[in-house]
């Protein structure tokens, strides 16, 4: 069994910051669960463009509020504590945080933990991360 506390992740290499968010990686690929799970803060007043072409992601809001817009239709959904959105079509989307939003994010396939968003708002596939790590070591 894996037992881990958020307080142990904060300040460790499992805490990763993007421009508009800070993600505390509760479970990663190495944990061999078949998914990764993150406790992510989306900072107040920010707008984040994302399109996870290589992953499916479900996002459950547990604090704060904002909106998510589906790029293909323009549809805007309010997001607040108790609302989940799932990017089942790898949907390109825009997240606007009116207040700091705390999100529980699940990724399939799991993130390795080293990914950062590329220019399109995606994370590279795990094979690319593995290849980059291998090259860095040679
Ligand atoms: C909600 C969302 O997708 N935010 C971007 C960060 C990402 N979820 C992560 O790595 O935790």
Question: Keyphrases for this structure?
Answer:
globular; 11% helix; single chain; four-stranded antiparallel sheet; mainly beta
How would you describe this protein?
Helix content is 11%, strand content 41%. By secondary structure, it is mainly beta. The strands form two sheets. A six-stranded antiparallel sheet has the order 1-2-3-10-5-8, with no helix packed on it. A four-stranded antiparallel sheet has the order 4-9-6-7, with no helix packed on it. A hairpin with a 3-residue loop joins strand 1 and strand 2. The N and C termini lie far apart (34 Å). Bound molecules: (2~{S})-4-acetamido-2-azanyl-butanoic acid. (2~{S})-4-acetamido-2-azanyl-butanoic acid binds at residues 21, 23, 38, 40, 42, 50, 57, 59, 95, 103, 105.
Beta-strand percentage?
Answer: 35-45%
Q: Which ions, cofactors or small ligands are bound in this entry?
A: (2~{S})-4-acetamido-2-azanyl-butanoic acid
- The counted number of beta strands is 10
State the end-to-end distance.
34 Å
Overall outline: globular
Element-by-element helix/strand order: HEEEEEEEEEEH
Radius of gyration: 15 Å
With helices defined by DSSP (H or I, 4 residues minimum), what is the helix count?
2
Detail the poorly predicted runs.
none
Structural class: mainly beta
Can you summarize the main beta sheet?
A: 6 strands, antiparallel
Biggest sheet, spatial arrangement of strands:
1-2-3-10-5-8
Mean pLDDT: 92
The percent of residues in helical segments reads: 10-25%
